[in-house]
C-alpha cells in the first residue's frame, strides 16, 4: 500500500513539473510577442491575438513575431526530442543532431543548392536565398544521407553505440570539409549566401514550413511516447532490453530515422541551430529523471522554451539588429558540451 502511494506521488510530481513547464512556455510566448524594436504591451498582444488590434499591431504580430514564435516552438521541440532519443538509443550523453553530423550534412546540401543551383543572390547590399525550397530540399537530403550512412556503417559490424557515434563524427568532418571546399571555389556572393544560411534564422520559415515541422514532430512524438517503455528498458543496456523482449534491431534504426527526419526538416527551413537538443534533454533529466514517459514531453517543452528565450535575446541584445540564433545557441551549448565530456571522463 505504501509503495502504491509512493508511486502515485512520483507520477503526480512529474505531471506537476510538466504543467509548470507548459505555464512557463506560455509566459515565454507572451514575452516573445512583446519583445522587439516596437514596444507592444501585454494588453495589446491579447487584443491583437483576439482580433481587436490595430492594423499596425496585426502586421507586426501576425507577419513577424507570431511566425518566429511558432518556429521557435516547432524547431525547439523537434531538436530537443532528437537529442533525448539519440542519447538513449546510442547510449551516449553527447549524442544529438548537431554532434552526429545531421546538421553538417544539411549545411552541405544547402551549400550545394546555393552554388550549383543558383539559390543564393544579392540585391544591392542585402543577401537573400532566391530559391528557398531548393535549399530546403537539398539540406533535407544532406541530413538524411548522413543518417543513412551512419546506419549502413553500423550494419557492416555489430550495431554498437560507439560505432554509430564515431561514424557520425567522421561524416560530420567530411561534410564540413566539403562545405569548405565549395566555399573556396565560389565567388563572394555565393560564399556570403552560404554563411548567411548557416547562421540560422527563425524568421526564414513561413506558416506552411512551420506546419510541416509541427506535423512531423507530432508524429515523431507519438512514436517516441508509444515506445517510452522500450526506451526505459534500453537505459539498462541493449542486452538487458533484448532480454526483456525489446526488438532493438528494429527500434534503434527506426528511432534514428525519425530523429533524422524531423531534425533535417527543421534545419532545412531555419538553418543550423546547434546544441539545443543537447542542452534541453539534459536539463529535462534534472527535472524528471530517465523515465521516458515524462522525459520526452519534458525535453520537448524545455527545448521550445530555450529556443524562445534565445530568440528574445537575439532580438533584444543589440536592437534593432537581430543576432544569428545559431551563434547564440552555440555559446550556450559549448560550455555544457565540455562539461559533459569532462564528467564522462571522470566517471569512466
Task: Provide a quick synopsis of the model.
With 348 residues, the chain is mainly alpha-helical.
Overview of the molecule:
The protein is mainly α and 348 residues long. It is 77% helix and 2% strand. It contains 14 helices and two strands, in the order H-H-H-H-E-E-H-H-H-H-H-H-H-H-H-H. It has a two-stranded antiparallel sheet with strand order 1-2. The protein is globular.
Helical stretch tally = 14
- Quaternary status of these chains? single chain
- In whole angstroms, the N-to-C terminal distance is 39 Å
**How many β-strands, per DSSP?**
2
Q: Could you report the average pLDDT, rounded to the nearest whole number? A: 83
The assigned structural class equals mainly alpha
Approximate shape:
globular
Q: Spans with pLDDT under 50 lasting ≥5 residues?
A: none
Tell me roughly what share of residues is in helical segments. Answer: over 70%
Strand content of the residues, in percent? under 5%
Largest sheet, strands/sense/barrel:
2 strands, antiparallel
Rg of Cα set: 21 Å
Query: H/E series, N to C?
Result: HHHHEEHHHHHHHHHH
Order of neighbouring strands in the sheet with most strands: 1-2
Amino acid at each position: 500500500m505504501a509503495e502504491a502511494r509512493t508511486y502515485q506521488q512520483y507520477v503526480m510530481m512529474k505531471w506537476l513539473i510538466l504543467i509548470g513547464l507548459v505555464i512557463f512556455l506560455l509566459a515565454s510566448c507572451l514575452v516573445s510577442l512583446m519583445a522587439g524594436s516596437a514596444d507592444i504591451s501585454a494588453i495589446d498582444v491579447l487584443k491583437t491575438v483576439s482580433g481587436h488590434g490595430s492594423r499596425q499591431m496585426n502586421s507586426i504580430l501576425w507577419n513577424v513575431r507570431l511566425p518566429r514564435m511558432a518556429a521557435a516552438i516547432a524547431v525547439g521541440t523537434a531538436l530537443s526530442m532528437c537529442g533525448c532519443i539519440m542519447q538513449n538509443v546510442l547510449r551516449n550523453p553527447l549524442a544529438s543532431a548537431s554532434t552526429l553530423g545531421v546538421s553538417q550534412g544539411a549545411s552541405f546540401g544547402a551549400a550545394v543548392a546555393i552554388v550549383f543551383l543558383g539559390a543564393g543572390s544579392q540585391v544591392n547590399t542585402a543577401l537573400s536565398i532566391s530559391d528557398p525550397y531548393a535549399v530546403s530540399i537539398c539540406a533535407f537530403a544532406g541530413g538524411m544521407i548522413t543518417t543513412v550512412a551512419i546506419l549502413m556503417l553500423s550494419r557492416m559490424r555489430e550495431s554498437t553505440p560507439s560505432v554509430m557515434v564515431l561514424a557520425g563524427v567522421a561524416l560530420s568532418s567530411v561534410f564540413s570539409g566539403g562545405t569548405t571546399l565549395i566555399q573556396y571555389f565560389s565567388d563572394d556572393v555565393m560564399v556570403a549566401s552560404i554563411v548567411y544560411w548557416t547562421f540560422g534564422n527563425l524568421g526564414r520559415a513561413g506558416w506552411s514550413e512551420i506546419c510541416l515541422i509541427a506535423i512531423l514532430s507530432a508524429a515523431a512524438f507519438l512514436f517516441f511516447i508509444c515506445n517510452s517503455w522500450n526506451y526505459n528498458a534500453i537505459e539498462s543496456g541493449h542486452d538487458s532490453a533484448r532480454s526483456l523482449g525489446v526488438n532493438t534491431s528494429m527500434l534503434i534504426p527506426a528511432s534514428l530515422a525519425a530523429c533524422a527526419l524531423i531534425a533535417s526538416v527543421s534545419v532545412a527551413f531555419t538553418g543550423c541551430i546547434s546544441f539545443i537538443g543537447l542542452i534541453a534533454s539534459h536539463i529535462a533529466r534534472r527535472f524528471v529523471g530517465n523515465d521516458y514517459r515524462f522525459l520526452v514531453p519534458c525535453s520537448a517543452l524545455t527545448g521550445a522554451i530555450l529556443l524562445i528565450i534565445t530568440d528574445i535575446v537575439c532580438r533584444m541584445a543589440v536592437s534593432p539588429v537581430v543576432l544569428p540564433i545559431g551563434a547564440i545557441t552555440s555559446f550556450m551549448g559549448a560550455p555544457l558540451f565540455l562539461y559533459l565530456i569532462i564528467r564522462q571522463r571522470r566517471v569512466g
